[in-house]
Each structure stands twice: as C-alpha cells, then as structure tokens.
Please model this.
Amino acid sequence: MPSTFTFASVLSACAQLQDVERGKRVHGHIIRAECGFDLFVGAGLIDMYAKSGFIEVARQVFDRMLERNVVSWNAMITGYGLNGYGDDALKLFYQMREMGVNPDGVTVISVLSACAKNGMVEDAQNVFDKVPQRNVCSWNAMIAGYTQNRHCGKALKLFSQMRQACVKSDEVTFASVLTACASLAVLNQGKQLHGLVIHSGYEGSVFVGSALVDTYSKCGSTEDAKQVFEKMPERNVVSWNALIAGYAHNGLGKVAVQLFEEMLRAETMPNHITYVSVLSACSHVGLVDQGRQYFNSMNHDHRIVPNAEHYTCMIDLLGRAGKLNEAENLMNSAPFQPNASMWGALLGACRIHGNLEVGKRAAECLFELEPESSGPYVLLSNIYAAAGRWVDVANIRNLMRERGVKKEPGCSWVEVKNVVHDFVVDDWSHPQAELIYAKLESLIEQMKHIGYVPDISFALHDVEEDHKIQSLSYHSEKLAIVFGLLNIPNGTPIRIIKNLRVCGDCHTAAKFISKIVEREIIIRDANRFHHFKNGLCSCGDYW
Model:
C-alpha cells in the first residue's frame, strides 16, 4: 500500500500537469487506503483540484478535513487566488485568523497575490499593513500587485518605503519595479534603479537584465537597452524578445528583423512572443513580403501555431500597406472566430486609407464585441469626418450617448525632475499655463514660416476653418512638448507619453518643432514610439 508521502508526491505531479482525471483516480485510492484525513494528503488534494480548475471540489475536500494546519489553509487560499476568487481568498484569510491559526509567510504572499490578481489592491494593502513582520517576499507581492494593476506610481512609492525599512531587494523586487518604470516611461528613475541593480550585485542576472532591456526600450532609449543586452553574460528568449520588441516599437523595424535573424543564428529558439514582436516590426516599416514569410514559417520551422495576436499583427501589416481585402480574407480564414483586436487592426487600417465600406463592417462587429469601448465609435467617426460626412459623424455621437459610451479623453505626460506633469486638450490648469501658451503661439508662427500648414482633417467638428485650426493648436501633445522645452535643459530629449494614438497634425508639428528648437522629441503613444529629430520622424511617416 502506498504511503501518505507517495500519495502527496503523486498528487503534486497531477497538480503540475493539471491532470484531474488521474488525480481523481489517486483520490479514490486515498479513500480506500483511509489516508484522506492526513494533513499533507488533504493539502495535496486541495492543490490538485484547485490547479485543475475544480475549485468547488477543492473546497469540499477542505471542509471535510477533520483537522487543518497552516498548509491546508494556504492551499485553499492559493487555490481561490489561482481561480479568480479574490473575495473568497480574503474571507478565508480572515476566517483563518479568527480560528486562531497563525498565518505564515506563504499565507501572506498567497492572500496578497490573490487580491492583486483580482484587482483588489486596496484589500491587499490592508492585509499588508497588518502584517507585523514583512519579509522581502511580502514586499515583492505587494509591489507586483500594484504593478500588475497599473498603479505603477504606488509601486514605486512602496519600493521607496521598502528601502527605508532596510529590506534588501532581490531579483523579483527589481524586475517588478523596473516594470513599473517601463509602464510610466520614467527614464531617470529607471537609470537610478539600474544603479541600484549594479550596487546590489544583480547586474549579471538574466531575469533583471531582461527587465532592464525592456525598461530602457519602453522609455525610448534603445541605445541603453542594447548596451545592457550586450553586457549580459547570459541571454535567453526573454532577453531577445525584449530587445526585438523594443526596436520594433521605437520605429526601428528593420533593426528588429536583423536581431531576429541574429537570434536564430545564436540558436535561441523563438516562442510565440518573439513572433508577435517580429511581425509587429514588419508592420511598422511595411515589410509585407518578409512578414508573410515569417508568418508562414512559424508552424513549419518552429511548431508554433499562430494565435489571435499573430493574426492581428498580420492584419495590421497588410492593412497599413493598403491590402485591406487580403487582410480581411486572412482574418476570415483564421481557425477561430476573429476577436476584437483583429477587427480593431482592420478598422485602424480603414481609418488610414479612408475605406468606409470595410470600416463600417469592422466597426459594427466591434460594437458587439466591445459595447463599452469608445475606440470603434471614434475611428468610424474619424472616417466619416475625413470624408466630410458630418451628418454621419453626428449620428455616431448620438449613438454613443444613447448607449452610454464615453470617449476616453486624450492625455499627455512629461516627466521633469522625477515629477510627472499631465495635460489634456486646451488645458489651462497648469501653473505655467500662460508661459506654455505664449511659447506655443510663438512656435506656431515660426512653424508656418517654414512650411507648416495645420491639417484640419484631424479637427473632427463641422465648424469654420479658423475654429478647426484653433482646436488643433492646443492638443495635449503640443502642450506637453512646450512644457518640456520650458523646463528640461538643452541637450536633453523631451520625452512625452500619450494615452491614445498621436494625431496626424501633432505628428507634423513635432517634426517642425524638433527642427526649430534643435531638440530631439520622443513621443510614446498607445501603439509605438516616434523619435523626432531635425524635422524627421523615426517612423518615416509610415504609421
């Protein structure tokens, strides 16, 4: 008869494989052997059922245990977290304490992770605040929770508190905090963290090194990213992916493709993320034939079956190149139903090329798939406006009101001395507003003298031309750029983040401004980076 240790080991293997059928057979043997009430066997059953997605069965096992220890409670709390039941994990944690069972480090990490994974960051913070002794693992769980839920500023603040508490950071800490810096595109703080990484002795870690490459890339500094990559004593597929994606998103698609080929020569096996990055690179620079070749080689060369992300990249690639029919045909040939990203790529291409027929079809599908998203309504409205069909523009706005859909306002951010300043269109709330507007008016006049003509097709209102020009002048990107010029020392690039796609007129204006002031301007919008220098953009106006 197998021992309880054997049963626990076999259950652990079933849990890792998520093989619930074999786990059920083992459970039957356990019942016949009368080992079901053993503490470690019981925890193993809870873990196996939870990791296989049978959370209710896991709870039945938990409730039937005659005796429970901290391992039993931890297994159940972890199971709830894995299956998306953050509330139940939190309730069980408090019930555990009420019954006099003292939580250990695993308990704390489990409940923090469960809350964070399910968006319950305030509940996680409440638990964290009540933990009398916090170790690096509990700090890491809380920082990661904020980062995963896009509260990146709070993640950085918590990291600062961790340092003040004299808790030594490890690889996981640095990876999470670097991810927060990457999301906020705060280059200066990223560089400060790099210094801490070196000081802490983690510069040779492939885990931290890959996070640094990703951070520098997402802050628009591919030079720093490449330097970190080249100094890494060891590289894995994550390292290569970070660098390839970084060059792709920074408008250097051809370099990204070269890096992909170099990766293959280095005999590093690509994964599905690698192909998303290289297909995206092809899309950003219009390498249609090469993109087709890579897409077709995925399964043939590396046994990677294209998923929705890969199809989205290909639809984007073909659509940007004006091959809208081929893009739609490819989408319809996918072995699964097209998702919102695929239709969104097609609709975005229709906006670029003014294809109303396909655009309407794509938008109507998106209205059903994402009824609360304003993006499809705005893009379709843009297509109508570009065609001068103002009645249809008004109808779209009415439809949004009827359905309770609100357009996400455009917002741009710029960091100065570790403080992030944000702007919206026609924003007079900033303390330097008068200086900003005066400087902007002066720049607009200088731009006009060297050929700038406001592109009123991006002023999506049926009003007089003067009003259209005025509405374009005060877009958030322009305000953020001017604020940067006023406050960031000469010789330092102006780095802007935009939550939406940068508008065409602002893109043109940024080129002119970079030439007039002889400064590099870097804008990271919702899709990619634009590096403006000497009147040119890294995207080559193909975006």
Summary: Residues 84 and 118 are 6 Å apart (CA to CA). The chain has a mean pLDDT of 92. The first strand starts at residue 411 and ends at 416.
